[in-house]
Write a structure and sequence with these properties.
Elements: H1 12-27, H2 36-56, H3 67-105, E1 111-115, E2 118-121, E3 126-132, E4 138-144, E5 150-155, E6 161-167, E7 180-189, E8 198-205, E9 208-210, E10 217-220, E11 223-226, E12 230-235
Antiparallel strand pairs: 1-8, 1-12, 2-7, 3-6, 3-8, 4-5, 4-7, 9-10, 10-11
Helix pairs in contact: 1-2, 2-3
Length: 237
């Protein structure tokens, strides 16, 4: 900012003031972790000090041109307003994040439903709902483990509409599988062999909330779910 106030002056007091103030400005750099608004305020004060000092000590026969200083003053005020606006936005963002955390905690212990193909097996129980756009005369629900291995196949044919199914966590041989994250795929056709439009939703109990990221996420055993993926809260038990 010193270049913006370098008006011509032969007065020794002005030179000394300028040098002292410039020294202060050079020592007030922006170290890591400094507050930009505070730095700008210090520079703003320095600028006004220089301007006032030079106006007091200018040569009456050759008055200094203040147009450039006025422009810089306006620009600095604009930057100050922008930084303050950014601080306000950060405060709003923090408030919203706090609200999301409270909302996430309200899901604890509740069963929620989501649209998707991944679901949690909890206490050897998993719930899947399938909605058919038209009657599915032939339909199968395949369940895969976390490695992509097919572990169970179930006949889920039915009329148009929504059907709820419960899986007991056993594979096709009757072996009990461990709790964890599994995936499901439903294939359905009508009486003419034409594919039937199918919507699959899965449900699980929220057992925890992860608040380590920018936004909290829901935990269903070892499965992580975004709050935005939840379509329905089914119960509180």
């Amino acid at each position: 900012m010193t270049s913006g106030v370098s008006g011509t002056s032969n007065n020794t007091t002005t030179n000394n003031t300028t040098n002292n103030t410039s020294g202060t400005g050079s020592s007030s750099g922006s170290p890591t972790g400094s507050n930009p608004l505070s730095d700008l305020t210090n520079n703003y004060t320095t600028f006004l000090t220089l301007l006032t000092t030079q106006l007091k000590n200018q040569d009456p026969t050759s008055p200094m041109d203040t147009n450039q200083m006025t422009q810089q003053l306006v620009q600095m005020s604009s930057v100050e307003q922008q930084i303050e606006a950014n601080n306000q936005l950060k405060a709003i963002q923090s408030t919203l994040a706090s609200g999301q955390t409270s909302q996430a905690l309200n899901y604890l212990g509740k069963y929620v439903e989501m649209q998707g193909d991944q679901f949690p097996l909890q206490n050897s129980t998993a719930n899947v709902s399938v909605t058919y756009a038209s009657a599915a005369t032939s339909a199968t629900m395949n369940v895969y483990d976390s490695t992509g291995k097919l572990v169970s196949t179930t006949d889920v044919s039915g009329a148009a509409g929504t059907h709820n199914f419960s899986w007991n966590g056993k594979d096709s041989s009757g072996n009990t599988l461990p709790d964890g994250t599994y995936s499901v795929k439903v294939s359905a056709t009508d009486s003419s062999g034409k594919a039937v439009a199918t919507t699959v939703k899965v449900a699980g109990k929220v057992t925890g909330v992860d608040m380590s990221g920018d936004t909290p996420t829901l935990q269903m055993g070892d499965m992580t779910v975004n709050m935005s993926d939840v379509t329905t809260v089914l119960s509180a038990s």
